[in-house]
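pasting for ref
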Amino acid sequence: MTEKGGVGRFALDDRVFQLLAGLVEEYSGLRFDVGRRDLFAERIGRRVAALGFPGFLDYYYHLRYDPAGREELQQAVEALAVNETYFFREPGPLETLVRTWIPERHQAPEPFRVWSTACSTGAEPYTLAIVAEEAGLSERVEIWASDIDRGALLEAQEAVYGEGALRMTPADKRARWFERTEGGWRLRSPLRSRVRFFWANALEPDGAAGEGRWHAILCRNLMIYFAEETIARAVEGFHRALRPGGVLLLGLTESLLRFDTPFRVEEVNGWFFYVKDVGTLGRRDGEAGRRPPSHGHRGGGCHGKEDPRARGGRLCVRAQGREPDARGSP
């Protein structure tokens, strides 16, 4: 590393770092402060070298002004993405959603539609599928999952996991729902077919954020990477995408308590659910939001993509020359 941060002959000074980090944050919400500059420089430096640019500033100009820059910005975000996830991470809210919320709140004959945003390699939506299967509600719950990282989505569809992803999975559940393979542990069928994956940027989700589309949205452990203004932007989109009476679930260390949002908070079995009031659709411009009560969460603290509705619902996720199977569209 150089004094300024960088890889090999590439040096990343503060000014160019701020320019590049600003583009990444504007597009994806991922925030990189100066304390993470070396990590940023190392990963982005590989892209600079791969494209043959003489330095980070030329790479910035490519991202900012070249017609192909948008696709490369997607590549940069994928290089920076943190795909840490595991099964049965914070399972209490998921158990409550399936075993309490759905039986008590969802009497309609249509399936209860859930969108798991920023699902990484799929551990969270698959955990929800397991919970629904064990509760006898798998036919009533329709699970969709998205991520900004196309490579992560390919891994999610393969559904093969190492020991780290199963570190919180009880032994009986591992034996029941997974089978040993050469590459690790593979989720058994038909659970793999219970989740439909599609590409989406949580800040620019296109059709996935259509008004009143979802009964529940899971956005857990993503906003810890966001600045406050980015959180407000994401929450506004989630509120619009939920049906009246729909619920937003966050990670246990995340909270909207300091924000003026249109959600109200309900405590269900000790867990906090952010609820869109019945009779409301998207928040109107100038409409005052409801501030949740002042308590915290239990437990503490493509470019290169297409609209998922296009091409007959074929998932547009490409990495290493592969494309996943079609799964429909939300």
